[in-house]
Amino acid sequence: MYIISLTYKVPLENIDQYLADHVTYLNEQYELGHFLMSGKKIPRVGGIILAKAKDKEEVKEMISKDPFYINQLAEYEVIEFEPSKSTKELEYLLD
Length: 95
Prior knowledge:
alpha+beta; Alpha-Beta Plaits; four-stranded antiparallel sheet; 34% helix; globular
């Protein structure tokens, strides 16, 4: 499992120009079963994505399709972790 942390490199006005395209990208990744959860950071300086992938290379491939990445609007930090405990509703992620 991976945490993808985005930090914006440009003003929010630039981010907002590509926000609809970014949401389309997120929806595609959810449909493929790659993304489990996402949202904006507070304050709005970036976002967080919880992703499921076989390896870090697959995560990098996913990121490469993000309009924020393509247009160099955000920096990406990818953190791998192995979940070992969860709520009952999310236990399926422990497999």
